[in-house]
Design goal:
This protein has about 425 residues and is α/β, with parallel strands linked by helices. The protein has 13 helices and 16 strands. It has a single domain, classed as TIM Barrel. The strands form 4 sheets. Strands 3-4-7-12-13-14-15-16 form an 8-stranded parallel β-barrel, surrounded by 5 helices. The chain is globular, with a radius of gyration of 20 Å. Bound molecules: flavin mononucleotide. Flavin mononucleotide binds next to helix 10 and helix 12.
Length: about 425
């Protein structure tokens, strides 16, 4: 391919430049240490991506509140206690010229029951997905004070990320996590200023963005990850996504990442529950084309991108960046190899009989690969989804027990 759009720099609204158009999309590796800070294995993992050549590394979701973790192995940044470890993490990610943005998140009701934390959500509506084998904690509805604490939490974590040397943050409002739960009329049944019409359902996201942007230094990147649709009847849909983008336009975002789906409808893994036909690569490109008209900030498209041609096609359609997650868990140096002219394309995951594995099995399979990379090995191409499910269930049980004990120590020591 002669002149490649993929390797052209991107000037962001904040005046900084990304050296190419490939982002490593957020992947929580669940490899934080016993204090929920980035430990040596996690840092070694990110070194692979730094060397791999992406222009932007978006970290796996880092939690803003210690009682609300996406997974019992997630990193948490709610105080400056372990800031030197976060600074080391940022330094490794930036070592080859990429920018590194910390994704900040809150799981809301998407928290495993066995973790023993406190699940808070817009409304007390539990997430029930027995077919996935995952049991989620029953949530209670957040109070006004708890909602204010979430806004303050995003702002506090963003400030700490900036102090640790991250180039920016991404606010996670996709995939059915807390801010996405507020956006959806199915999970948000509030009748106060945080629920009902879209203006109310989007209020928490907008307040979080404003709080982060207001205190960030000029040049610090602020991004949001937003569903183009939840792909579920009665959920947040593409028309509402366009309206939320209009609301985000005046808030000074540097990048808006478009994704889609939730645990209940895993469109982000190409398996929407409402059976919407998605393209085999770049699942959300048709949706992004409609959203491009609304967006005044650059868009990043993530989901199902595995080939250089697929990535280029998205850019030609007007998307500014492409995000890759699972492909970079199989081939961490894919950007560098594409730039060198190789047309490498990691395979889609399949089961022994050649069928695509379930979304949960794909998630576990990728997590297994991240563990291999963190241990300094090559990610194995033939990770059986069934075996990955089994080993990850054992691992999650052990990590949940470690988290419960850690949480009890924090609570008795009076640390907030
Ligand atoms: C193991 C794993 C962990 C993930 N963790 C996160 C996360 O922390 N935050 C997030 O927004 N998305 C997360 N995702 C979703 C990815 O960012 C991405 O949206 C999805 O995998 C689709 O992109 P892909 O086809 O390139 O993998 C995760 C995906 C995987 C496989």
């Amino acid at each position: 391919m002669a002149s490649s759009l993929l390797f052209q720099p991107l000037l962001l609204p904040n005046g900084t430049t990304l050296h190419n158009r490939i982002a490593r999309a957020a992947m929580d590796s669940a490899l934080a240490d016993a204090n929920h800070a980035p430990g040596s294995r996690q840092i070694r993992l990110y070194q692979r991506w730094a060397e791999g050549g992406a222009g932007l590394i978006i970290t796996g979701s880092v939690m803003i509140q210690r009682h609300a973790l996406s997974s019992p192995g997630s990193a948490l940044l709610d105080s400056d206690r372990y800031l030197p470890q976060f600074a080391r993490w940022a330094g490794v990610c930036r070592s080859r010229g990429a920018q590194v943005w910390m994704q900040l998140g809150h799981p809301g009701r998407q928290m495993l029951a066995g973790m023993g934390g406190c699940a808070c959500a817009p409304s007390a509506i539990p997430l029930q997905l027995p077919e996935t084998g995952m049991e989620f904690a029953a949530p209670r509805a957040m109070t006004e004070a708890e909602i204010s604490e979430v806004i303050a939490g995003f702002a506090r974590s963003a400030l700490l990320a900036e102090r640790a040397g991250f180039d920016g943050v991404q606010i996670d409002a996709g995939h059915g996590h807390l801010l996405s739960q507020f956006l959806s009329p199915l999970s948000n049944r509030r009748n106060d200023q945080w629920g009902g019409c879209l203006t109310n359902r989007a209020r928490l996201l907008l307040d979080c963005v404003k709080a982060v942007r207001e205190q960030a230094r000029p040049g610090f990147g602020v991004s949001v990850k937003l569903n183009c649709s939840d792909f579920i009847a009665g959920g947040f849909d593409s028309q509402e996504a366009a309206q939320v983008i209009n609301m985000l336009n005046p808030l000074g975002l540097d990048l808006l990442e478009i994704t889609g789906g939730t645990y209940a409808s895993p469109a982000m893994f190409g398996q929407p529950a409402d059976h919407t036909a998605l393209p085999p690569e770049a699942y959300f490109l048709p949706h992004a084309q409609a959203l491009l008209a609304a967006a005044q900030m650059p868009l990043q498209l993530t989901g199902g991108i595995r080939s250089r041609a697929g990535a280029e096609t998205a850019l030609v359609q007007g998307v500014a960046m492409v995000g890759l997650a699972t492909a970079l868990a199989q081939q961490p140096d894919l950007p560098r190899r594409w730039q060198a002219g190789e047309s490498l394309q990691p395979d889609n995951a399949t089961t022994a009989d050649g069928a695509p594995p379930s979304a949960v099995a794909m998630l576990m399979q990728t997590t297994e690969r991240l563990g291999q990379m963190a241990a300094g090995r090559q990610p194995r191409s033939a990770v059986s989804p069934q075996l990955a499910m089994l080993s990850s269930q054992i691992r999650l049980r052990n990590l949940s027990s470690r988290y419960r004990q850690w949480l009890a120590r924090q609570d008795t020591s009076g640390t907030h």
